[in-house]
Amino acid sequence: MGLITISTDIPWLSLIWLSLLVPSVLIAFIPDTQQQLMRIVGTGFAFISLVLSLLIFFAYDPKVAGFQFVERLDWIPQIGITYLLGVDGISLAMLVLNGVVIFTGSLMSWNIESRAKEYWIWLLLLTTGVYGVFVSLDLFLFFVFYELAVLPMYLLIGIWGSTRKEYGAMKLTLFLMAGSAMAIIGMLGIYFQTGLRTFDMIALARNVTMSAEYQRIFFPLLFLGFAVLSGMFPFHTWSPTGHVAAPTAVSMLHAGVLMKLGAYGCLRAAMWLMPEGARDWLPIMAVLTILNVVYGATIAMAQRDAKFIIGYSSVSHMGLVMMALASGTQIGLLGAVLQMFAHGIMTALFFSVVGRMIYERTHTRQLPELGGLGRVMPFAAVMFILGGLSSMGMPGFAGFWAEFAIFIGVWERYPLIAVIAALSIPITGAYILRAVYSVFFDEVKNPEFLNLPKLTWQEYSGALILASILILVGIYPGFLTDMINMGVAPIAQQLNDVIVAGR
Asked: Which residues form the NADH:quinone oxidoreductase/Mrp antiporter transmembrane domain (predicted)?
């Protein structure tokens, strides 16, 4: 049994994504002059979605294998499309991550005044799509929610962004649309070649009738289609540009959650449904991820813009996720999902400090122009340092356990790749410490920075929530890893069986 008991007669998973779709509609009817009401409605329902996610998390029974809280309804039975929802240990962690990031992101959005109604509508619609992806077990429904999560990014960056926002929004959209095109081809390949004429992912996983030859053809399309969103090399260039151009809350969602959709799609759709294709292609993917991990960290070291540092850091850290997925081992998959969670919280904290606390007050993110901010905003300094310690994989923080599991899993399958990827560890420490010193402890470059406006209660609250989670998971990761392990075990076993059979 879970820690709490809730009625299974209530469609809890539907309520989670509806808890953000409904307010997006309500806000459309609020007069433009009532911006404070829009903020309260948006933040309030974001909090409700977080509470619902935590409710499901604590009601989930880790002793019961398989999916729980399943909801099924025939949608278009003629072509095998069902409204099918359910959660396991993997999706549970992602639900909680999304709930935390949208709630803290909504707190960081209280400064939005230009076209506030449209902003809140698109922000909530984006997060509705993310929730839908994490609970969908029908491949077609999965793709519908996936597109709903991706498309609002263009408007959110193009209208409310900064620093070449039109270029960043268009580049992001073109890359992600190309990825979606590959993904849908892979989906249709599965649909037609299995002969089952269904998009039910549970049925497809249990009755794999697609030949190994077809899996070799369609696996890279589906895997790379989703990997584009996770920033996998060589499709990563849109990501740092999008991070820099996006407003603070959107950057938090972009790096904290949206990039995880890509890795989640690779694991849940491609690897779960096409294990024989995975057996043949994952070694190649593992080699590509070396460039993500080491190249991303090296380029981050060369950046002068604090947001670009975080952007390329995300490329490196998500490279670790993809590398762990490519290992196909159970401990590697566990580390990948835990890293998705830890990195999501960590980058949300980074962007809340850099984008909201610093940039909104100093109007610069250039390291040579900043300095001495630790005197003016010591709270921001502490929060950035805590995020940095997790990024560096220091013991006592969530990032440590994630990276530790990843390197164990990768070493089991690809020892040389693990050794090369480890080069990113000292590089990460170098650029994090450089950023901390340049921004907070170097001499003051601009005397006006000594009189910056004080931080708001929203900034204090959001950052404290994120930092507390990094420490909590760092001290006691078991409450997450036990559930995640239950979710990744069947996929890892399936991959292992295929690999052994192919020898």
From this structure: 136-423
Residue owning tokens 């095998």: 80
- Given a contact cutoff of 8 angstroms between Cβ atoms, the answer to whether 326 and 285 are in contact is yes
Report d(CA 347, CA 469) in Å as an integer.
13
Q: What does the pLDDT read at residue 160?
A: 80
Domain positions in the chain = 12-502
The DSSP bridge partners found for residue 73 are: 83
CB 36 within 8 A of CB 110: no
378-391 and 398-413 helices, crossing angle to 10°? 20
Judge contact between 38 and 116, C-beta under 8 A.
yes
User: Alpha helices, DSSP H only, in 8-80?
Assistant: 12-28, 35-59
pLDDT score of 114? 83
Identify the DSSP state of 366. Answer: B
Q: In this structure, what is the dihedral angle of CA atoms 27, 48, 13, 76, given to the nearest 10 degrees?
A: 0
The model's pTM: 0.93
What interhelical angle do 35-59 and 116-135 show, nearest 10? 10
pLDDT of residue 463: 93
Q: What is the DSSP letter of 451?
A: G
Q: How far apart are CA 272 and CA 254, in angstroms?
A: 25
> Hey, what are 116's tokens?
């506030």
- Which regions of the chain are under pLDDT 50? none
> Which class for 233: exposed (0-12), middle (13-18), buried (19 or more C-beta within 10 A)?
buried
- Which residues, including other chains, have CB under 8 Å from residue 22's CB and lie 6 or more apart? 45
**Positive or negative CA dihedral for 271, 277, 279, 280?**
negative
- At 15, the amino acid letter reads L
Say if residues 304 and 368 touch (Cβ distance below 8 Å). yes
